[in-house]
Amino acid sequence: MDLRKEFHKDMISIYQNAKRECGYNATRFLQMVAAQDGVKVAKSFIHKNQPTDGFTTLWEFGRLDLTVEALILKQKYQELFTDEERHTVSELLKQYGYEPDE
Predict the structure, then answer these.
(1) What CA–CA distance (Å, rounded) separates 102 from 29?
(2) DSSP letters for 25-64
(3) In degrees rounded to 5, what are phi and psi of residue 4?
């Protein structure tokens, strides 16, 4: 499986995990991922320069590990995102008290 497809699959997985573990049903997020490439959706989140509603909701649940931002920082996906994009999401996560395992 190529890396973009794997990332897309993992985007759906974080939706499923958030629903199962937190009861958070991010329907709009799932629709966006289904309609577009997962990497494209992730990059659109990065370039908003502010946390999404989903990010804030997952922060309230104490589950920033289930965010798109945490997924972006996984080592295996490093080549899909620029250093600047990775830095942006790392700083956002740190602002909310989450230290990613870069």
Answers:
(1) 24
(2) --HHHHHHHHHS-HHHHHHHHHTT-S--HHHHHHHHTT-G
(3) -60, -45
Cβ–Cβ under 8 Å, residues 45 and 68: yes
- Break the chain into its structural domains and give their ranges: 3-95
**pTM of full prediction above 0.90:** yes
pLDDT in tens, 40-79: 999 999 998 889 999 999 999 999 999 999 999 999 999 9
Between CA 96 and CA 80 the distance in angstroms is 24
Residue 94 corresponds to which tokens in the numbers above? 């740190």
Quick one: which of 62, 53, 52 has its CA closest to 22? 62
Neighbours of 48 (CB within 10 A): 9
Local structure of 88: helix, strand or coil: helix
Contact between 58 and 24 under an 8 Å Cβ cutoff? The reply is: yes
